[in-house]
Amino acid sequence: MKTLYDVQEFLKLHGYINLFSKRLDAIFFMAQELKTLYDAGLIPNEKDYFTADLILRREHRLESERVTDDKKNYWD
C-alpha cells in the first residue's frame, strides 16, 4: 500500500465504498472505517492497518494544507 487509491481498494475488499464528494470528508470517514474494522478484528495484519492509517493521515494533512492555501489565494 502506497497511495490513497490503495487504501480505498483495501477498504473495498472489506465492503466499504466511499461516496463522499469532498476529499477531506472521504479521508476522514475512511479512517473511521479502517479503525472500526481493525477494532473488530477484521484486519488481522497490524502492518496493513498502520500503513493505511499513516497514508490517510498524510493525505488528510496534504489536503488540509491545499484547502487552506486555496482560501489564502482567493482573498489575496
Automatic annotation (TrEMBL):
The protein's name: YqgQ family protein
Xref: InterPro entries: YqgQ-like, YqgQ-like_sf
Listed SUPFAM superfamilies: YqgQ-like (SSF158379)
